[in-house]
Design a protein that fits this description.
The radius of gyration is 21 Å and the shape is globular. It is 24% helix and 16% strand. Helix 5 runs parallel beside helix 7. The protein is α/β, with parallel strands linked by helices. The chain has a single domain, classed as Alkaline Phosphatase, subunit A. It is built from 12 helices and 16 strands.
Length: 435
């Protein structure tokens, strides 16, 4: 084994906690992720932001959004990401998947935010193979016949191919080229799947006859219709997409095993927010859960988290400690034995001790500053703090998560029981720290 382990961070798009079989989901077959949980550790209380960009910013920087979030689909041009940090620390680094952090808005929507983000070329990675590198109107399909930007050039060989296959194959090729070097590798796979549009996969009977509309001119359709998939989108394909994305993750895991890299590589898998609202999934065959992407309740923030590293992470373990989006970067740094550069502010807390089966330093609360700044919705600033039993919004509403996950029964301070008052007193001081 090299002096430092390899690290692979995989993040599904729009896939909530309830989807994975290992978490009790029964609507989909996810044998590879289930096996990853069987061989490693799954977390029951991992929460992220309700939408993708807010989660990605915290994930890549280890900071709360009030410190460095500038707008939906953007990351500040001068922001230091884990791409920069891991490359500077001597890791061979690669990103393959969804970027969408340079220029999100089409010409007719908030033009002053165009080209305000960070180019993938400047994000710190040695190599990249991504969808949506530049303008929204140029992004095209992320699935069949995808538009892929690889190391400064658009690929011309993607006809008949599927985006996640291309990303997975690129990662495998990257690992194959770097695995025998002295330096370890860091791979970030922000998957395109399972985000809308919900479309056939190569394993779907409809695949051969399907022509992705997102590669065509808009005609009379609006950009909002294109982005939210409200045209030519069928939720029935969500199942196909979940199962195919499980399959390609398994392909990467198999490759690591074939190359005797499994024990030298930490794999972290999570979701970026809850499932879409029009996707309802069964848990334990009797409990239907509909997605809550964009909402601040559990349906919007509760995501799967599975970690595997044979010989380091005890197999078949379940962790109940809380994990939030800011915690991944410090965990990666600790497993790599790295120190943050002088002056680099980090909000997160490493959960590496828990991965090793140790007690660690468990969180007493998780904090969320959610302000998407998306022209397509009217969500303003929402701040809340929670533990595994109680949740408090800065506006004063307290919720008992043991009995009210949907947050239908707000408790105001004037109504507090002694138990509720104790919970409020524990959580409320956190807000004063977050400025």
């Amino acid at each position: 084994m090299k002096n430092q382990p390899n690290v692979i961070l995989i993040m599904s798009d729009d896939l909530g906690y309830e989807v994975i079989g290992a978490n009790g989901g029964t609507s989909y077959e996810t044998p590879r992720l289930d096996k990853m949980a069987e061989d490693g550790m799954r977390f029951e209380n991992a929460h992220v932001m309700p939408l993708c960009t807010p989660t990605r910013i915290s994930l890549m920087t280890g900071k709360y959004n009030f410190r460095n979030y500038i707008g939906f689909g953007l990351i500040s041009p001068d922001e230091i990401t884990f791409g920069h940090l891991m490359s500077d620390a001597g890791y061979n680094t690669c990103i393959a998947g969804k970027w969408q952090l340079y220029s999100y808005n089409p010409p007719n929507e908030v033009p002053e935010m165009r080209n305000k983000g960070q180019k993938i070329e400047n994000a710190g990675f040695n190599e990249f193979c991504v969808w949506h590198p530049h303008q929204t109107e140029e992004k095209g399909s992320r699935y069949k016949n995808p538009i892929i930007y690889e190391n400064g050039q658009f690929r011309e060989d993607t006809a008949g191919q599927y985006g996640e296959d291309i990303f997975c194959d690129y990662i495998i090729d990257f690992i194959g080229r770097t695995k025998d070097e002295d330096d370890p590798f860091f791979v970030y796979w922000p998957m395109a799947a399972t985000h809308k549009p919900h479309e056939p996969t190569p394993d779907s009977p409809e695949w051969n006859d399907f022509d992705p509309p997102s590669n065509h001119s808009l005609g009379g359709r609006t950009w909002a219709e294109l982005e939210d998939g409200s045209w030519e989108d069928d939720p029935k394909f969500y199942k196909d997409m979940v199962e195919y994305h499980d399959k390609v993750i398994g392909k990467l895991i198999d490759y690591l095993a074939q190359q005797n890299l499994s024990e030298d590589t930490l794999i972290i898998y999570l979701g970026d927010n809850g499932s879409p609202h029009d996707v309802c999934s069964m848990v334990h065959s009797h409990n239907e859960i509909c997605g809550g992407k964009g909402k601040t309740n559990d349906r919007g923030t509760h995501v799967p988290l599975i970690c595997s590293m044979p010989g380091t992470i005890p197999s078949g373990t379940v962790q109940v400690d809380m994990v939030e989006a800011t915690d991944f970067l410090p965990t990666i740094f600790e497993v790599a034995g790295l120190q943050f550069p002088k002056g680099y502010l980090i909000d997160g807390r490493s959960f590496l001790p828990q991965l090793r089966g140790e007690l660690g330093n468990p969180r007493e609360w998780m904090f969320f500053h959610f302000e998407p700044m998306n022209d397509r919705n009217d969500i303003g600033q929402i701040r809340f703090v929670r533990d595994n039993e109680w949740k408090l919004y800065e506006t004063g509403q307290l919720y008992d998560l043991r009995n009210d996950l949907e947050e239908d029964l707000p408790i105001f301070e004037s109504e507090d029981s002694p138990e509720q008052s104790t919970a409020r007193s524990k959580l409320k001081p956190v807000f004063a720290q977050m400025h």
